[in-house]
Design a protein that fits this description.
It is a single chain. By secondary structure, this protein is α/β, with parallel strands linked by helices. About 60% of the residues lie in helices and about 5% in strands. A hairpin with a 6-residue loop joins strand 5 (about 505-510) and strand 6 (about 515). InterPro entries: S04_transporter_CS, SLC26A/SulP_dom, SLC26A/SulP_fam, STAS_dom, STAS_dom_sf.
Amino acid sequence: MEITYASSSSRDIASIAAECSSSSSSLAAFSSMPSIRPVKVISLQYPTSPSSSSIGGGTALFVGWKSKLKRMTWLDWIQTLLPCSRWIRTYKWREYLQTDLMAGLTVGVMLVPQAMSYAKLAGLQPIYGLYSGFVPVFVYAIFGSSRQLAVGPVALVSLLVSNVLGEIVDSSDALYTELAILLALMVGILECIMGLLRLGWIIRFISHSVISGFTTASAIVIALSQAKYFLGYDIVRSSKIVPLIKSIISGIDGFSWPPFVMGSVILAVLLIMKHLGKSRKQLRFLRAAGPLTAVVAGTTFVKIFDPSSIKLVGEIPQGLPKFSVPKEFAYLKSLIPTAFLITGVAILESVGIAKALAAKNGYELDSNQELFGLGVSNICGSFFSSYPTTGSFSRSAVNHESGAKTGIAGVMNGIVMGCALMFLTPLFEYIPLCCLAAIVISAVMGLVDYEEAIFLWRVDKKDFLLWTVTFITTLFLGIEIGVLVGVGVSLAFVIHESANPHIAVLGRLPGTTVYRNKEQYTEAYTYNGIVIVRIDAPIYFANISYIKDRLREYELEVDRSTRRGPEVDRVYFVILEMAPVTYIDSSAVQALKDLYYEYKSRDIQLAIANPNRGVLLNLTKAGVGELIGKEWYFVRVHDAVQVCLQHVQAIKEASKATAATSDPPPEEERPSFLQRLLRQRGEDMSIPELESGYPNPSSALSGGTDPQLEPLLSRKS
């Protein structure tokens, strides 16, 4: 709906003139001014009932869940409870089966040696790594929503387990293993709870810079912790770099050449195979075959030469894991922080990988459902002697590159692990520990993300600072402190940005009715007596003081070089563009009232443009709508400018009339008839001339203009 009028203010132009001068002669002069040209303004529609956005957060969430449950069919329920049913219904046996089986076999061959290596990193016997790569893999294939994610033991979680449990009990104690299994149960329960309550969004507050800095530092610590298998002597178990380096240096007398040479050769082979597998498509099988090659080569060497100075894995129990209930619940309280930390790592790493793979393969993935699937796999795994597992970046990448289409690849992966547990464990006892260490180091070297640091330095110094702080604190103060500091600084940045939102002074782009940031568009111009401000954030108690301070600054900082229109000596109107404001709380509403009274005391009118439904409803409920005046609310900034500009013109004319009557010029300074005619012609400018500040001769030739056409646009003859 559009309405046409000369002024939208209850303070009509005559009253403004009266304020400028109370003399009758001034009013007489004012009444002789040219009539104000009508302008077209779009009428703002006020909400008559609360919208869904105005309902409380908890109520809105409950209403949303309730309506969603009502719409769900039996097929939706099956797909929610068993995500595997989505790909089972559409499975193309001839097209997918062969690639799925090959991908599962490839990742399974890669997982067996990696699982034993990561178990050693966690301070556990290698058999528990194999157990962790068996039951959770099958469970995830049923309850997980990603079709390419490879679940199992990973280096970062293994380091967290080792770091925490090592402070409670010695790794040689049976209690150590029980606590690792209990930790898997706790992590699974936390993941399920967060998935069911749809709390995965919490982790979004952790910046990618924090994740990158944390994983880079952790990768260095993991690599150093594996140095003992290369050097031939024990070093202290720690998640800090200084104790590790001190221990390595102090024990140098126990250095042994055979494991160092063998481990270095195996590591070089692994890195070369990984590089070839990544760089050449026809050789990509080498990436997955690397760990198996290392194990076979190391075992063959030991079998042939039987070197006494190279330590071996030792005896590994044969057979599938047996059902057992996790024990030692007395230590539950001390494991809660670690369970939360591992859950956070699972969300950051696994869900991120799963979403990326889903996007590449063209299907939708619900992060909360994915989190629930990971939780169920950890819970079920804990009853079969598994320690915490999550999605692996390297194995998931290999799974995707090998052509995995569905969870059948995961099932095949589990079958390979089951065959290894049943038939191959007698061969595993001859695997050199330095080979397993080389596999771990090769895997974590990909986590050293120095390229991210270089990128952040070029793009955003603030994110680079965040990366550096997280990296240094994790490296020197430990994983737990590093994560807490990184998350704390990340949240501090979020709070700072929220409390200091971006606010822009808008100007009009020439030849349009579009208003944009003057700093971004230097050609944009403003109008004398009018300040247009856009607030690019929700307004609430934490940022309203900052917004008020900036508005006062904009009122004083007037750049006259880009201003047009009638020349006045100060600001009479402040227009707030509120399109980006999605929410306004009660504190901000009260502050807006105070701002209005402050402006009113200085004879400045506040106008609001384009508020959304929720914001407008809150302002109306609080009485701000009536306080400011409904006629000062506009759909567009352009509408507000039209009305304000006419008021500014009226104020200028009233001031001129007052000056003319109060101090008449001497006879010799009075203008001639021709001068008065030219001045009258200048005063009788059309709206396009008014907005530009320059007379347009073509407008005089073109005659009258249609008041229903878009005003303030210059017209060419």
